[in-house]
Design goal:
Protein name: Lipoprotein
Mean pLDDT: 82
Largest sheet: 8 strands, antiparallel, barrel
Organism: Hymenobacter glacieicola
CATH architecture: Beta Barrel
Distance between the termini: 68 Å
Length: 137
């Protein structure tokens, strides 16, 4: 009887190990959302410091070393969006729009000016005064 019981126990243990392995390998860490109180209602200025994956560092105050390059955005909790960038005459150009959420930390940007193409804005919080963001066109 012992010869019959041990192989069944081994097979069951091996099968259990495979099941646990496949379940764990399918688990993915879910991205946590950037807290709204830090992201919304705040103008984020591009520092032009690029990180991996086309992400740029943004701060809540303009950087003096950025010179004539203007680049910032602002998301409001009510779905309004405001972007400022370099205009045709090297001045600040204001670009109003709206946003909708497309997953954790991803926002679909649509401009009120129908001729300007929108994009997907992906943000990552670094700390209270810094975030990373990238635009996917």
């Amino acid at each position: 009887m012992k010869g019959y019981y041990f192989p069944d126990l081994m097979r069951a243990s091996i099968l259990l190990c495979f099941v646990v392995f496949f379940l764990l390998s399918g688990c993915q860490k879910e991205e946590s959302s950037v807290p709204a109180e830090r992201l919304f209602g705040q103008t984020w200025y591009n520092t032009f410091q690029q990180k991996e994956g086309d992400f740029f560092i943004f701060k809540p105050e303009p950087q003096l070393n950025a010179g004539w390059r203007y680049d910032n955005f602002r998301l409001e909790a009510d779905g309004q969006f405001q972007e400022e960038g370099l205009g045709p005459a090297d001045g600040v150009e204001s670009r109003p729009g709206v946003w909708t959420r497309e997953g954790a930390n991803k926002y679909r940007i649509r401009f009120l000016d129908g001729t300007r193409p929108g994009y997907l804005l992906e943000v990552k919080l670094l700390d209270k005064q810094t975030l990373q963001a990238r635009r996917v066109y």
